[in-house]
Amino acid sequence: MGISRDSMHKRRATGGKKKAWRKKRKYELGRQPANTKLSSNKTVRRIRVRGGNVKWRALRLDTGNYSWGSEAVTRKTRILDVVYNASNNELVRTQTLVKSAIVQVDAAPFKQWYHQHYGVDIGRKKKTAAASAKKEAEEGEAAAAPVEEAKKSNHVQRKIEKRQKDRKLDAHIEEQFGGGRLLACISSRPGQCGRCDGYILEGKELEFYMKKIQRKKGKGASA
User: Biased-composition ranges for Basic residues (predicted)?
Assistant: First the structure.
C-alpha cells in the first residue's frame, strides 16, 4: 500500500469515513526514515525525488567532517559512539545518526593539528603516567635507535611563539583530549544529504550536554 501523506484516507472530524474519489498521487507519497546506523560498512543510496532532483540516503556511516569553531579548523574524523539524543533514547540504544544527536568522535586529527599549529601536545597524562611513559621511552631507546623530531626553522618557531600568546583551551576539551574522544553535535541530515558532518561542542553547550549525559548515566546505575 505504501506510505501516503494525503488526507483522503483520514476520517472526518465527526468520525465518519471519507469515500476515496480518486487514485493516489505521486506527489502525496511518503518514504520510510533512513535511520542511519553507525557502521564501518558505508552505504549511501541515490534517490530520485520531485523535480528530477537527487537526495542521498545514508544507511550506514562512520566518518564525517567536524569543525572546531573556536580554532576555525575542520577535520575528517571517525564517529565512535552515539551518546545522547534529546528526542529519543531508542536512537541512542540503536546507534542511529540523526541531526542534533550528540556523538563521540576521534580526537586524533585535531590533536595532530593542534601540535602542528601550536607546538603543544595536548591530552598527555600528567605526573605518574608521565613518569611511567618516560621509563618506557628510556627502555625503548636502549632497544632501538631514537627517532629525532623534524627540526623547525626559525621562521616556523617564531610563528608558533606568536600563536602561543593568544592560545586558549577549554579545560573540559583538554580533559576529553586525554581520553582521545571529543563530544560533537551532528549538524547535517544523513538521511537527506548522505553525510554526517557536525561541530565540536564547546563552552556552555558542552557543559549542558555533559550534565545531561552524566544524569542519564546516574539514572542507569540506580536502575
Answer: 8-26, 153-162
CA-based end-to-end distance of the chain: 42
The region of weakest confidence among 59-63, 127-131, 162-166 is: 127-131
Hey, what amino acid is at 91?
L
Cα–Cα distance between 149 and 100 in angstroms, integer? 40
The number of helix segments (H) and strand segments (E) in the chain equals 7, 10
**DSSP track, 15-78:** SPPPP--S---GGGEE------EE-SS-EEEEEE-GGG-EEEEEEEE-EEEEEEGGGTEEEEEE
pTM, entire model: 0.80
Percent of the chain with pLDDT strictly greater than 70: 86
* CA separation for the pair 151, 131 (Å, rounded): 25
Domains of the chain: 33-143+153-222 (3.10.290.70)
Q: Which residue has the cell 540523526?
A: 98
141: left (phi over 0), alpha (psi -120 to 50) or beta: alpha
pLDDT tens for each residue of 6-63: 999 999 999 999 999 999 999 999 999 999 999 999 999 999 999 999 999 999 999 9
Of 92, 67, 106, 59, nearest in space to 197 by CA: 67
